[in-house]
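User: Show me a protein chain along with its predicted structure.
Assistant: Here is one chain, sequence first, then structure tokens.
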Amino acid sequence: FGRTVTWPVVALAIVGCATVVVGQSRGEPADGSMAALTAEIRELRLAVQQFAQTQSQTQALGVYLSVQQSRILQVSSQLETARRELDGVSRQASEVTSKLGNLEEELPRISDPMQRNAVQEAIREMRRERALATAQEQQLRSRELDLSQTRQTEESRWSSPLTRLEALTQR
């Protein structure tokens, strides 16, 4: 009895070991699985690093764009103020020119010397005012031009990083 039970157990053990050995040889070797796993972990690490770098770049560009947009708004506001001032000075210059024309037109019809002197003095004063208004108008036109160019420059500075940010977010 001891012998008959032992042989089947030994035979079963041999078949079991052979199955395990054959099963291991069909799959990847243990070293190959570890190498593949290590390679995949490295790829994951690179992907995470690239994501973190892209995220940092995106955040930096976002901050830069926000600051640049504030600068554009500031310059635009200054430009609008300069334009309003220019409109006011232009109206004032037109009014002075019109009054001066009226006085110059009226002068030849005045015969009273005192009244004539008063009108001549008013004409001189109006010419001074017109000269001041014209000089101020030229300064404001120059300021308007400078601010307009500054705004264009700032908008072009804003455009390039915006394109980069769009490219980063589409990855």
